[in-house]
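From the pipeline queue, job 12 of 40. The input is one protein chain; the requested action is below.

Action: predict structure.
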Amino acid sequence: MNLLRESEFVRLLQKEQGRLLRVAWLILGQEADAWDVLQSAVEQAWIHRAECRGGSETFPAWIRRIVTNLSLTELRRRRRVLPIDPHDLSAIPEAASLGGAGGSGGSGGTGGTGGTGEPDLTAMTVQDLLQSLDANHRQVVALRYLADLPLEQIAAELDLPLGTVKSRLNRAVGRLRQVLAAQEDDERRVSR
């Protein structure tokens, strides 16, 4: 059994952490959920590190698969939850008193801050664009363009035929082009 030592595990994890977070964030659409999934993935990876056959060579794909699976599980779990409008919560006294206790107080936005405290408009735009896709298309885009996986590996990780992955990616890119073109048209109209 080739068990990863703690120092090697941490080194490999640090190398992949940003990519793993981006994949989870794009699949889930929420930064907080992505961090939760990443934390769970790290816990599972540590507990089951003996199952990482190939050691450091296969670690990136192995942990990415864990993150992808946990993200998809979270999406399925969400489908069973009835969404509530935040404005409706203000009518409930207990919910109003919980508001400052770590609920929604942060940026609430979709983009990063780039370390300056100001929103990164490019990241927000990209995140908004990707949110216009449904979860199936968003996850293929995330795995292809953020995780840099070849189409064959995406098909294997999602347990889909290669043709399905190609068509989802093609449709997603087409949809993104449509949304961008519409935004550009709107900006031209406003600037006139």
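Job complete. Confidence is low (pLDDT under 50) at residues 87-121.
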